[in-house]
Amino acid sequence: MDGEETTEHVEQVFEFNDLPEPGHEEYSSDDEEQQSTSNFSDVEACGVIDDSSFALQAHEQDCFSVAVIAERWLASGGEDDVAYLWDNQVSDSVPVLKIDHDDSVIHVAFNNGQTLLSTGDMSGKIIITQLLDLKTRAKINDCNDLEWMCWHTTSDILFAGDKDGIVWMWLIGPRGVAQSKVYNGNGSSCTVGGLLPDGKRLLAGYADGAVRLWFLKDGNSAMVNVNSAISAVHHHVSQPIGVVGAENGSAYLLNTSHADKLTITMELIVLSKVEDSQKLNETAVETCVECVQFAPFNSWLAVGRNDGTLCIYETASGTLRSNYAAPSSQAIMRAVWSMEENIPILCVGSVDGFVRIFDARDGSLCKMTYYQMYRNTTLGEALQKTLDDLVHEQMIPPQLAVKVLAIYDKAINKALAQKAKNKMYFKAEKLRAYRHCDNVWTFLMERVDFRDSIRVARVKFVACDGSAKLTSS
């Protein structure tokens, strides 16, 4: 195919310094004092807090995907073959819709117009739901084992990649799928994909190491190969720079400025890359790149790996600005850039359950937050002590101890969420009787409909006014 290249023919096609200058000059890489390659300890940097507003509990098994839009809608997909949709204007704790699937729901996404929700499961089934009336717009069963899914930035066009190496494109009309198109690879699984800012090209990565830049209108593509399965992809919002992460731990910068070819401009290797080929194969999974994310305001790149390391690079030179290693050595799965009071912030989520927030200027850890833990309980402390002893005696690795504690926290959170609800929504046709005595209210209602579609002929509610003072006997 035209434009095919391998890493043996890496060219310095353009200078990053010739690209448009970032909007925030005070964060230029010229200031060496802001650069750092030291590891920051979680304990030394800051304390751990839980400052979440609230928690949503609906899935019976692990939650795999979450999407939020317009500060109103939230969707989630889980291992229990179900996707849930929450509407913050209706309830902050009870989902307004349950979408049943045939397999684990691994991707959920809202369209740019904030009118449609797509949910996709591992088998390849995709369901399009209308947010206006919560009705199904379309059901798509074209994919064979879904790998990824994303919406077009301006149109109601959905893209997806599957195990057969096909990139699918569907135009969603008022009555369902109005048009579809396929972009065939060479049979190797299309593991990741992302639309370029121009909306006319799509960058896709494959399990055989191929990276293709698809031209959506004519179906042509340019390709390079990095000789390692592609695991992550991203493109800069304003500069002609793309990046793919691979299972070998490297991130590859790509020049996407040419109309007819794709070129690798730089390889950012993992710090502890092993030269011996046998050892490299053994550590491939540990150093696999899980996420790559360009900063939208300048030429910085965040790379999170499966071994718990987070690196921030200068894309112009490949210089490592900062390097962080999570004590748990568990994968960094997501990275999000933002500006807070003119300070560049990088927020990352990890498999160990922590959300870590960094000052990207020097890579220092500013804050950690986490899903509510119960390790300070009597049972939790006993479990912690036992695990510490096992780790000290080298009977189990530290990673296993962290995983056990995470499962413990999750199990208690789930049990408590199922035991009591903060709010209950119902509708009754008739209030038969009520009574107030000794600070206790009693209501007797008939034909009561609950949010989960259960109807009860007669219900008795008993409530106590907790704000009032109890009289002593």
Automatic annotation (TrEMBL):
One of its GO terms (biological process) is transcription initiation at RNA polymerase II promoter. Residues 1-39 are annotated as: Disordered. Residues 430-466 form the Transcription initiation factor IIA gamma subunit C-terminal domain. GO terms for cellular component: transcription factor TFIIA complex. One of its GO terms (molecular function) is translation initiation factor activity. This is Transcription initiation factor IIA, gamma subunit, helical domain protein. It is found in: Nucleus. Residues 1-12 have a biased composition (Basic and acidic residues). It holds the Pfam family TFIIA_gamma_N. Keywords: Initiation factor, Nucleus, Protein biosynthesis, Repeat, Transcription, WD repeat. Residues 370-416 form the Transcription initiation factor IIA gamma subunit N-terminal domain. Transmembrane segments: none annotated. WD repeats lie at residues 197-224. InterPro entries: TFIIA_b-brl, TFIIA_gsu_C, TFIIA_gsu_N, WD40/YVTN_repeat-like_dom_sf, WD40_repeat_dom_sf, WD40_rpt, WD_repeat_multifunction.
